[in-house]
Write a structure and sequence with these properties.
5 helices, five-stranded mixed sheet, 5 strands
Length: 141
Amino acid sequence: MGYSILPDLQPEMGPLGGIHTALSHMQGRLAAFTTCDSPFVTAELMGYLISRLGTAQAAVPIFRERAFPLIAVYTKSCLQAVMEHLYNKKLSVRQMAESIDTRWVEIDEGSSFFSEQLFMNINFPADLDAAQNHLGHTPQQ
């Protein structure tokens, strides 16, 4: 697919370890992150977050009063804070995002890129069934 798969530089550190690995290897100024169990995150959402970033170190969406720090844009300038959190075994991505200059971006249901499934998280068979229904697929029995 033309993408590198990188093992975490510090294994067993959860999502923050993955963010650390990506920020350490990236060439550019910023990177968009999402979780593997949120399949309906769109390029339009990420573009919107980038457009709202300004001079902040990160842009994290908020939807219905819930922050989504694992679906966010982080700049290379976050690397030091990420490393400090890993060193101190503070593995919460939200806590790391709260410790830096983060732009918390409200996502409005009226946004052109909005869909009810945008932040859908698939953790259970029923979640997968709902995602398949959204795509027009028949769930497996």
